[in-house]
Write a structure and sequence with these properties.
Elements: H1 2-9, E1 14-19, E2 26-32, H2 49-54, E3 59-63, H3 65-79, H4 84-102, E4 111-117, E5 129-136, E6 146-147, E7 154-156, E8 171-180, E9 183-192, H5 200-203, E10 207-208, H6 217-225, H7 235-255
Parallel strand pairs: 3-4
Antiparallel strand pairs: 1-2, 4-5, 5-9, 6-10, 7-8, 8-9
Helix pairs in contact: 3-4, 6-7
């Protein structure tokens, strides 16, 4: 991985091996040509410190054990015909390796999107979410988003007249500073779920420093994707969208190039 990423950054093509999950062998490598932007995605991109030095911007998607369990039950029992015992056994088998090799990479991420069970929902675990956008306060080129005032802990409950919610879950927003793996971060969070995607128009003005280049750009991008997209109505869609705008902002800061809104 180190050799390949180094080569791509130097403008050289690579032959990337393809792991076959069915038989455990390597299929014919695929050629990857260098491009101005290279996206590295997988379980272990931040394990090797040599690789970390080559990556300009890093994002970790952190799904809590409770949510992973709820989602895995929904998928494996409904779609694969597994029993509840099989689902539990599969999760337990993976926990040691996950704790040893995957989870520690959060320490080296510039942005972590953390998905947790809702604290305000009246439904079963997994139905509604609390999502945190954890942003490095010291990353050059990254200007963290926050709710209204970055210097104080802020909690906001949007007006029910402007933000429609269901009978079993409302919406709340918050932001604050904290230490995360010993480093300073800004945390912006959303708990709950909307029932009308257009109501992001009432939420977006509460969030400062989103990276948007025009009024309501965050809302426009969410509406463009549509309310049927997974997570579009809760914090996962909101913070993925803000993170994408932060990436654009970061790209402009390090390259000096401008990207259209």
């Amino acid at each position: 991985m180190y050799e390949h990423i180094k080569a791509l950054k130097a403008g050289q093509a690579i032959k990337k091996p393809i792991y076959n999950h069915v038989n455990g062998t390597l299929d014919t490598p695929e050629t990857v040509e260098p491009t101005p932007i290279v996206i590295i995605e997988g379980l272990h991109p931040l394990v090797d410190p040599r690789v970390r030095e080559l990556l300009d911007f890093t994002i970790y998607l952190d799904i809590s054990d409770e949510i992973k369990f709820a989602w895995k039950i929904q998928r494996d029992m409904a779609e694969r015909g597994w029993t509840l015992e099989q689902v539990k056994e599969s999760i337990e088998q993976r926990k040691p390796d996950f704790a040893a090799y995957v989870a520690p990479q959060m320490e080296f991420s510039d942005v972590v999107i953390s998905v947790l069970p809702s604290e305000i929902s009246k439904e079963e675990v997994g139905k509604h979410l609390k999502v945190k956008l954890i942003q490095s306060a010291t990353k050059k080129g990254l200007n963290p988003a926050y709710i209204l005032d970055k210097d104080v802990t802020t909690i906001v409950h949007p007006s029910p007249e402007k933000v429609k919610v269901g009978p079993t879950c409302g919406v709340s927003l918050a932001s604050y500073k904290q230490k995360y793996y010993g480093k300073d971060v800004f945390v912006t969070e959303m708990d709950g779920k909307l029932v009308d995607i257009n109501n992001y128009a009432a939420i977006e003005p509460l969030i400062s420093n989103t990276g948007a280049k025009k009024a309501m750009e965050v809302t426009d991008e969410l509406v463009k994707v549509g309310d049927k997209s997974p997570g579009a109505m809760d914090g996962t869609g909101l913070f993925q969208t803000i993170t994408s705008l932060k990436l654009r902002e970061f790209y402009e800061s390090v390259t000096g190039k401008k990207v259209a809104a």
